[in-house]
Design brief:
Layout: H1 10-16, H2 19-26, E1 36-37, H3 47-64, H4 72-88, E2 97-101, E3 108-110, E4 115-119, H5 120-125, H6 129-144, H7 147-153, H8 158-168, H9 175-181, E5 185-186, H10 191-207, H11 214-229, H12 249-263, H13 273-280, E6 284-285, E7 293-295, E8 298-301, E9 306-309, E10 314-319, E11 322-327, E12 332-340, H14 347-353, E13 360-361, E14 365-369, E15 372-380, E16 384-393, E17 396-405, H15 411-419, E18 422-423, H16 426-430, E19 435-441, H17 448-452, H18 461-468, E20 482-487
Parallel strand pairs: 2-4
Antiparallel strand pairs: 1-5, 3-4, 6-19, 7-8, 8-9, 9-18, 10-11, 11-12, 12-17, 13-15, 14-15, 15-16, 16-17, 19-20
Helix pairs in contact: 4-6, 6-10, 6-11, 8-9, 10-12, 11-12, 11-18
């Protein structure tokens, strides 16, 4: 039920790379995760079995999205919002349970027994209680409208169950069993269901006392954030989200705004921006340092105590147990991960065997990289050329793949990556801190530019400042008003 999904930067890799690379080694679990759905059949008689199924799926979701994120202040506000929405919604099915997921991607979804999920990435994007209420109301609407059951009856979800187990949980051997026995599935909701859930959510947030225009504001921020993450101006989310059947963001904004106007003029209902901002002050932003962080073109992993830098013009994104990146023109893509050598296996034999299905490797060259033994080789697929490198640290092997389309030579880019690979000192590893959302009050003369200069991120800070605060280009700041910035 991923209606508010933010396409990760890795999705561009998915669009750029051949299917063989996706199937064999990319499988970006952040960007290829299909929307979560639940086939249920009859509603009431199956609650017990569905509950058992959602308990199993709950654990899978925690594993796939970095576990649960503890934020007591945020949770208290969310609990109150959902309680009010549940009372206002039609077809209430009992209590709703909220889980905040420790993921920087923008996402929210629900299971049919009332489990609601929202990522900390989405929480950071909202600017008042009516905006986050619109997200939760949308998910509740899918539950009460039994969209999951309707989708299941179309029997379009079974292949995606095993896909998500293989790609997100890195467990391909259990895919068939899950497909055969699970009562849960992952599938896209239809365009009509998404628009209906939007309409229901607008009515329900208004009935619960919130500003019905919050839905349009949040969807607008979502669209701008999607374009930002895509590394371009405009473009929207529809062209990037290769698995989504959602209507385009402008269409959704127009629909929810029209629905709000039927309720009343702007200015009605609660927004409580101050309360929401106070609740999210200090929440983590971006990558979890325990799994490695991206700082511009640099990747630093304090647990492994390693670092490397992507070639000029690349954008990196840390995914679960891997790093993916793509060049600005989409002609080259990079992947980093690690594996364990089998007993008795040499580094050269491992690289020579080729770990990408369908790619023919060339002669293996033994080298030293960052003071560690390494092996490099070339590879060639149908439309792509590859440069492969493996660096050995004990039984652990760090793998790099640089893929270049057509006649583009990947050698130069891989050389830049390997030249920048190094071990972090204990002090450097300890200095890798998580980024956070912090509130600052605008002073007289402050502008988006001056506050953006205080941002810790190196990735277009002024654009990010505007998006996080729901501001358009050219907006003026109000002295004394609090705004979100990203700090370490």
């Amino acid at each position: 039920m991923q209606r508010y999904r933010q396409p990760a930067r890795g999705r561009l890799v998915a669009m750029a790379l051949p299917a063989l690379l996706l199937a064999a080694c990319f499988g970006d679990q952040n960007s290829l995760l299909p929307p979560l759905d639940q086939p249920g059949g009859e509603a009431a008689p199956r609650v017990a079995s569905l509950q058992r199924g959602t308990d199993r799926e709950h654990l899978r979701l925690l594993q796939a999205f970095g576990g649960e994120y503890r934020a007591g202040n945020v949770r208290a506000v969310l609990d109150e919002i959902v309680t009010r929405l549940a009372k206002a919604s039609d077809g209430q099915i009992g209590n709703y349970e909220i889980t905040i997921l420790n993921s920087p991607i923008v996402n929210a979804f629900a299971l049919p027994t009332g489990r609601l999920y929202v990522t900390r990435g989405l929480l950071a994007l909202a600017n008042d209680t009516s905006e986050i209420a619109s997200v939760m109301a949308h998910e509740i609407a899918h539950v009460t409208a039994r969209h999951a059951t309707e989708r299941a009856e179309m029997e379009l979800e079974s292949a995606l169950v095993s896909q998500v187990v293989a790609q997100v949980l890195n467990d391909p051997t259990t895919g068939a069993a899950v497909q055969a026995s699970s009562k849960l599935s992952l599938a896209k909701f239809s365009r009509q269901q998404e628009l209906l859930a939007d309409q229901i959510s607008v009515r329900n947030i208004a009935k619960a006392g919130y500003d019905p225009y919050g839905a349009g504001r949040f969807l607008g921020s979502l669209g701008r954030n999607t374009a930002f993450r895509a590394g371009r101006q405009g473009g929207g989310d529809k062209k990037l989200d290769i698995l989504s059947s959602h209507p385009s963001t402008p269409e959704r904004v127009a629909a929810v705004t029209s629905g709000a106007r039927q309720i009343g003029a702007p200015g009605i209902g609660e927004r409580e921006a101050g309360r929401w901002l106070t609740a999210i002050d200090g929440i983590a932003f971006g990558d979890d340092p325990s799994g490695g962080v991206v700082r511009g073109r640099r990747y630093l992993n304090s647990a492994l105590r390693i670092a490397f830098t992507a070639p000029e013009g690349f954008e990196l994104e840390a995914a679960r147990e891997m790093v993916v990146g793509v060049s600005g023109d989409g002609a080259q893509a990079l992947r980093f991960d690690s594996v364990a050598l089998k007993s008795g296996q040499t580094l050269e034999s491992y690289v020579g065997s080729g770990w990408i299905d369908g790619v023919t490797t060339g002669e293996v060259e033994s080298v030293t990289i960052g003071g560690l033994p390494a092996a490099v080789t070339t590879g060639k697929g149908t439309d792509w050329r590859f440069r492969l490198a493996a660096i050995q640290a004990g039984q652990r092997v760090y793998r790099f793949i640089l893929a270049a389309k057509g006649e583009t030579d990947p050698e130069r880019g891989m050389r830049a990556v390997l030249d920048g690979f190094r071990n972090l000192t204990p002090a450097e590893a300890q200095s890798v801190k998580p980024m956070q959302i912090r509130l600052v009050s605008a002073a007289e003369g402050d502008t988006p530019t001056t506050l953006a200069e205080r941002m810790a991120t190196h990735d277009r800070p002024q654009e990010l400042f505007l998006i996080l605060n729901g501001l358009e280009r050219g907006s003026r700041l109000t002295p004394g008003q609090r705004y979100k910035i990203v700090t370490e």
